[in-house]
């Protein structure tokens, strides 16, 4: 059997947390994007799988990235901040039964966010009231965008859809 030639693998960039904007990104498989030879956004990866077909695209795509991107973590911030944060909370793949240490970067960020909210309570409450008053348009637009982006990378996977009203409010 002929050996498969070593091809350049496309990794897929994780949807970044908005407050980390401007920082070098990470791939879904956990590498700095600067350290890999090629990477795609989630949308670009979807386009690639659509254009090349599942089997051909899979040969030149990092499968760890592809399977992570294919699951619930594929949402954009606009479609679901919940899903994007959940992806980062699961970073590192801790073994079962080992709780997070409590002093990780995301812990420090959440502490900082809580302190910022405390320092700007009226603004926070005003923003929340605004989101509560008219959530449907923004959420529906984001959900429509997510659906319009086309089929999932792999057939047979459950599609990710933003529930009407954005889920748990
Ligand atoms: Zn990868």
**Poorly predicted regions:** 154-169
Spatial strand arrangement across the major sheet: 1-2
Q: Give the H and E element order.
A: EEHHHHHHH
Strand content: under 5%
Structure description:
The chain has 169 residues and is mostly helical. It has one domain (11-166). The chain has 7 helices and 2 strands; from the N terminus they run ββααααααα. The protein has helices spanning 42-52, 54-59, 63-70, 81-89, 105-119, 121-133, 135-148; strands at 11-12, 39-40. The chain has a two-stranded parallel ribbon with strand order 1-2. It is globular. Residues 154-169 have low confidence and may be disordered. Zinc ion (ZN) binds at residues 11, 27-29, 62, 64-65.
Keywords:
mainly alpha; 7 helices; 2 strands; globular; disordered C terminus; binds zinc ion
Give the SSE layout:
Elements: E1 11-12, E2 39-40, H1 42-52, H2 54-59, H3 63-70, H4 81-89, H5 105-119, H6 121-133, H7 135-148
Zinc ion binds at residues 11, 27-29, 62, 64-65.
Summarize the structure.
Helix content is 45%, strand content 2%. The protein has 169 residues and is mostly helical.
